[in-house]
Amino acid sequence: MNETPRIRAPELPANLDWFNVSQPLTLASQRGKVVLLDFWTYCCINCMHVLPDLRYLEKKYPTTLTVIGIHSPKFENERDPAQLQKAINRYHIQHPIANDPAFQVWRAYGIKAWPSVIFIDPEGYVIGVLRGEGRRKQLDELIAQYTQIAADKGQLLEAKTALTPRPEPSTLLSFPGKVLATRSSLYIADSGRNRILETHHDGRIKRIFGSGSAGLLDAQGDEAMFDNPQGMVVVGDFLYVADVGNHAIRRVHLKSGEVMTLAGTGRQGRYVADHFRDPQEAELNSPWDLAYYDGNLYIAMAGQHQIWRINLNHQAIERYAGSGREDIVDGPLESACFAQPSGLAALEERLFVADAETSAVREVEINRAVVSTVVGKGLFDFGDRSGVGREARLQHPLGIAVDPERNALWLADTYNSKIKRIDVRTSQVSTFKIGAKLNEPGGLSLYRNTLFIADTNNHQIVALDLHSRHTEIVNVREQG
Using an 8 Å Cβ cutoff, are 300 and 288 in contact? Predict the structure, then answer.
C-alpha cells in the first residue's frame, strides 16, 4: 500500500523584513521543534482573534514550539514596515514576524485567506493548514502529539527563541483608540494601557478607570480592569464602554466611579442571530464602538460583522442589523452585510457606520429598517480619492462623528492617516487639510467647533479647530 508522500515545508525567502528577532529565521534552524506559520494581516479582526490562542500555546510550549507570524498585508498602509512595527507593539506580539508584502510565502504555501496557520512537524514536514479562528484546542492537541513523536524518536529540540523587541517610547497614553468629548469632560480610551481616562478638555486628568492591567474585573475606579477598551458613549449618569478584548460592554457610574459589566461573559461568541433577555449571558464578539439613540445602545460588533443593540430600559440585547457574512450588501436589516464595523454615530433617526474592511461608510435608517452605502464598493476596493459617494475611496476607516450644524460627517480615514469630511446631503467626500501629521487615527468626537482626534499610533489626542483648522496636542497630565 502506497503511503501519501510527505511535503517538506518550503524554506522562507531570504529577502523578508523581520521583526522581534535580531536576524532572520530559517525553518531548517527550527528542526526538532513544532513550527506554526501564522498568516495574518494586522487590519483583520479574525487575525486579531488568533493572537490570544498563539499566546496561550507559546506559554504552554515555550521551548518546543516556534510561532512565526507571516504578515501578508491586505492594505497599502500595512505594507509599511514602520506601521507593522506599531501593530506588533499595539497587539503585544511576542513571537518573530516576517513581513511578506509580495506574498511570496503566501503563494509558496497555497494560502487562500486570512487567517491561516500552517502546522510544520519537528522533522520539517507540513502536516496541514488550519483556516480561520477558534483553533486553540486543535492546535494544542497536535502540538502535544507531534512533540511526543519527536521525543520518542530522540529528535525533539528544546530551545527558546531569543526575541529582540522594539518597544514604543514611554508616553502617558498608549495607542488611544477612541475619544469622547462632552460638555465638561474628555474621555480617552487609553487602549494600550487598558484603561479609561476622564480629563478636562485641556487634558488635566480628573479620574482613571482601570488598573492598567488587562482583565475583566468590576470594581471602583482604578481598581477595575479592562482589556483594550475602545468606543464610548455617555447616557445620563453612565459612561458605556466597548471593551473589545473582554468581548463585553462595561458601564461606569460617573457619580460613584463604579465599573460594572452590562453585557458579555468575557468569552468570545460567534452567534449569527440571537436575542438575550439577560445581556450578561450573551457571548459577544469584539464590540468596537457604541452609539445611543432613543433608549437603545447600538454596538458595532466588529468580530461578527453586525450591529447589535441593547434596550437600556428593558436591558435585553439582540442582533439588530447584518447577516454576519463579511461583505458590503445593502437592503433590509437582516440580509444586509457589513465588514468589521468599527465606528458608529447617530443622527436624526439614522445610524452611520465606519465599515472598516470594505473601506466604506454605511447608513442605517432606523425607522425604515434598511441599510445603504454612502461611500464604498467592495472588500478590496480602497484608496485615497475625493469624490461623490461611491466614486470616493477610503482606506480602512475606524472613526466617525456627526456634525448637525454643518450637515456633515467627520471620518477618521485611518490607514490614509487623514480626516475626511462627508456632506450628508450630497455625499461629497473631501480631505480636510490640517497642519498636524496624524498616524492611523482611530476615533473622533465633536464638541462645538472642536474635533477631538484619537491619534492612535502617535499616542496622543489632537484638538482640531474646525474654523481655523488649527491643531493642538491635548496635554494629558496629572492634576496640579
Answer: yes
* Cβ atoms of 165 and 159 closer than 8 Å: no
Note whether 339 and 305 are within 8 A (CB): yes
- What letter represents residue 283's amino acid? E
3-state secondary structure of 49: helix
Would you say residue 3 has pLDDT above 60?
no
- Same domain as 54, residue 131: yes
CA dist 400 and 454 (Å) reads 11
Question: Structural domain of residue 88, as residue ranges?
Answer: 7-152
Three-class SS state of 431: strand
Q: Can you tell me which residue has the cell 477610503?
A: 394
For the chain, how many structural domains are there in total?
2
Is residue 296 within 8 Å of residue 309, measured between CB atoms? yes
Domain-embedded: residue 159: no
133 and 253 fall within a common domain: no
C-alpha to C-alpha distances, 387 to 54, 66, 241, nearest whole angstrom: 42, 47, 34
Q: Write the DSSP assignment of 250-279 as a string of letters.
A: EEEETTT-BEEEEE--SS----SS-EESSG
Q: Return the exposure string of 368-396: e unless at least 16 CB atoms fall within 10 Å of the residue's CB, then b.
A: eeebebbbbbebeebebeeeebeebbbbb
Look up cell 464595523; give the residue: 341
The answer to whether residues 138 and 216 belong to one domain is no
Tens-place pLDDT, residues 243-297: 999 999 999 999 999 999 999 999 999 876 678 889 999 999 999 999 999 999 9
CATH number of residue 311's parent domain: 2.120.10.30
CB 233 within 8 A of CB 240: yes
Percent of the chain with pLDDT over 70: 99
Listed residues 136, 152, 168: the one ending a domain: 152
The amino acid at residue 144 is: A
Query: Rounded to whole angstroms, how far apart are CA atoms 476 and 473?
Result: 9
> Which of 365, 378, 375 shows the shortest CA–CA distance to 427?
375
Is the domain of 221 the same as that of 137? no
DSSP string, 382-399: ---B-EEGGG-B-S---E
Query: Is residue 478 in some structural domain?
Result: no
Terminal C-alpha separation, the chain = 81
Select from 105, 144, 103, 112 the least CA-distant residue to 131: 112
